[in-house]
């Protein structure tokens, strides 16, 4: 055998990075799963073919569900700094308990939806889940924009939250189940980056209406009406998508499942190695009579040690993703900037708008490298950086005047804004792609819809805390609230290092072996040695 040169190091081994060796014939490599690496090497799958372009367009439609969430997150934060909006509904400037309840009812809607989401998406399919969720969001957006009083606005927010939980469960499930194993991380990682594709237009629309209609109710009504645009696209185009091949197989429509896989994963060849590998794993791993056929049965989420570990990953990812400090950046960035010395509302909205563009660019960077560096690695280093950022922000903010909230000098104010932006960039790279990708990968098919509904519940609870508590904390304790983020991010880094499972490099069905191991964290970092040659497959092991 030819001499090899290893590019491995201790950090890569610890975090599950792929260790590559170059040689004259083929490629000697340590991989998470030899069967998948072998099938990938022999497959005719082409990421730039016409079939692949069609597949990307299907995933794009499902990914628009994430835009809906991003639009809401940014538009609410920005209209909350518009005086006509505050005056119309009698809300205090700067937040408080009234504002917290007003906005957080959205999360209550998502929580109430939880028992209905899983059964709906399991029984009627991922496509119809997206259609129903989008229809509710369109309704909620129109009612919200036309609101004549608090009660109507609160009802609209509830409907929106209910619909978003359905969409946020069906959308990622569809993408992860129809994406080829080779590109699953990048394609599904892009899902949550499209939060910014909703946030960017929301930022610029509210900036424009606030600038040109500063004294009119239309400054906030127009952005709220426009919230139905993305959901309208999902409502129309979801009906044109092929159904998830895993859902088809689980519902005894095997020929249709094979046809979808052959067309979009095998360039039309049902005997392509990637297609056949997945069909074999469907046969072994997807039960025809499991809990996904029983709308009332949630026991499979908790009936084994492996399933408990899976739902623990979903639970921790939901809370870590919501409690890392992003609530300060999105919903309450105008007040964070005011605390940093930026008092002008138009300037605050402009900085928020610029932030969303920067974050989107770096979120795409994160999605593009998630299969190279792994989920666990990126999240761990991200949480370590967040801890440092908030320690610095807290230290600088402690120097503000307790009455005026002003910094003693401009340099200190600029430093805080810089670290707010650094947080946004790092969060976009390390956490944003994971928020949909990681939980949906950790769940097996039979529990994916119900598990993602629970993910929506967990996010709803964490988000309710963010909106309700953060609103009050910003007013009452100001910068001292940032101590919470220092502690939370340090704890998150610890949990990711010792508990989180690495999901890259395996098909969804191959993750069963990892989660059923005595120590899933350790098992997920194990490697298998093989020599892989393109067009031939595994030629030595």
TrEMBL record:
Residues 58-504 form the Major facilitator superfamily (MFS) profile domain. One of its GO terms (cellular component) is membrane. The chain crosses the membrane at residues 55-79, 99-121, 128-147, 153-176, 183-204, 224-241, 308-333, 353-371, 378-396, 416-440, 452-475, 481-501. It holds the Pfam family Sugar_tr. The keyword Disulfide bond does not apply. It comes from the Eukaryota. Its main location: membrane. It is found in: Membrane. The keyword Transmembrane applies. One of its GO terms (molecular function) is carbohydrate:proton symporter activity. It is a multi-pass membrane protein. Keywords: Membrane, Transmembrane, Transmembrane helix, Transport. Coiled coil: none annotated. Belongs to the major facilitator superfamily. Sugar transporter (TC 2.A.1.1) family. This is Major facilitator superfamily (MFS) profile domain-containing protein. It comes from Orbilia oligospora (Nematode-trapping fungus). The lineage of its organism: Eukaryota, Fungi, Dikarya, Ascomycota, Pezizomycotina.
């Amino acid at each position: 055998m030819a001499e090899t040169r290893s590019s491995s190091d201790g950090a890569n081994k610890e975090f599950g990075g792929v260790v590559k060796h170059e040689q004259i014939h083929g490629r000697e490599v340590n991989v998470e799963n030899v069967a998948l690496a072998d099938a990938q090497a022999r497959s005719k799958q082409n990421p730039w073919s016409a079939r692949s372009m069609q597949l990307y367009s299907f995933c794009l439609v499902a990914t628009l569900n994430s835009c809906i969430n991003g639009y809401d997150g940014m538009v609410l934060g920005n209209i909350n700094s518009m005086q006509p909006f505050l005056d119309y509904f009698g809300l205090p400037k700067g937040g408080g308990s009234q504002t917290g309840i007003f906005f957080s009812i959205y999360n209550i809607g998502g929580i109430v939806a939880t028992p209905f989401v899983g059964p709906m998406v399991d029984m009627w399919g991922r496509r119809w889940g997206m259609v129903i969720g989008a229809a509710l969001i369109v309704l909620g957006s129109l009612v919200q924009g036309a609101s004549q009083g608090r009660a109507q606005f609160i009802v609209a927010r509830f409907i929106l939250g209910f619909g978003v939980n359905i969409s946020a469960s069906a959308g990622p499930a569809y993408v992860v189940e129809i994406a080829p194993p080779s590109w699953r991380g990048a394609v599904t990682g892009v899902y949550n980056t499209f939060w910014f594709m909703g946030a960017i237009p929301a930022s610029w629309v509210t900036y424009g209406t606030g600038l040109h209609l500063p004294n009119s109710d239309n400054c906030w009504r127009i952005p709220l009406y426009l919230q139905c645009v993305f959901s309208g696209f999902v409502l129309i185009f979801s009906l044109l998508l092929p159904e998830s091949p895993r859902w088809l197989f689980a519902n005894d429509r095997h020929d249709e499942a094979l046809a979808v896989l052959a067309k979009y994963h095998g360039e039309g060849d049902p005997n392509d190695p990637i297609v056949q590998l997945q069909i074999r794993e469907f046969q072994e791993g997807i039960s025809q009579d499991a809990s996904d056929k029983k709308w009332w049965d949630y026991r499979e989420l908790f009936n084994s040690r492996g399933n408990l570990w899976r739902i623990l990953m979903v639970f921790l990812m939901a809370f870590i993703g919501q409690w890392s400090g992003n609530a300060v950046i999105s919903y309450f960035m105008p007040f964070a900037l005011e605390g940093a010395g930026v008092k002008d509302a138009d300037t605050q909205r402009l900085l928020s708008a610029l932030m969303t563009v920067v974050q989107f660019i770096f979120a795409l960077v994160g999605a593009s490298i998630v299969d190279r560096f792994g989920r666990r690695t990126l999240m761990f280093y991200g949480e370590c950086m967040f801890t440092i950022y908030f320690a610095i922000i807290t230290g600088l903010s402690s120097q503000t005047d307790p009455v005026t909230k002003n910094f003693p000098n401009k340099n200190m104010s600029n430093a805080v804004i810089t670290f707010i932006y650094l947080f946004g960039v790092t969060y976009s790279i390390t956490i944003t792609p994971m928020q949909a990708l990681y939980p949906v990968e950790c769940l097996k098919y039979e529990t994916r819809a119900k598990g993602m509904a629970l993910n929506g519940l967990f996010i709803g609870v964490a988000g309710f805390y963010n909106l309700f508590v953060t609103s009050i904390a910003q007013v009452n304790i100001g910068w001292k609230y940032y101590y919470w983020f220092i502690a939370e991010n340090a704890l998150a880094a610890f949990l990711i290092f010792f508990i989180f499972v690495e999901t890259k490099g395996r098909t969804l069905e191959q993750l069963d072996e990892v989660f059923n191991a005595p120590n899933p964290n350790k098992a997920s970092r194990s490697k298998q040695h093989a020599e892989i040659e393109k067009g031939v497959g595994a030629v030595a092991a």
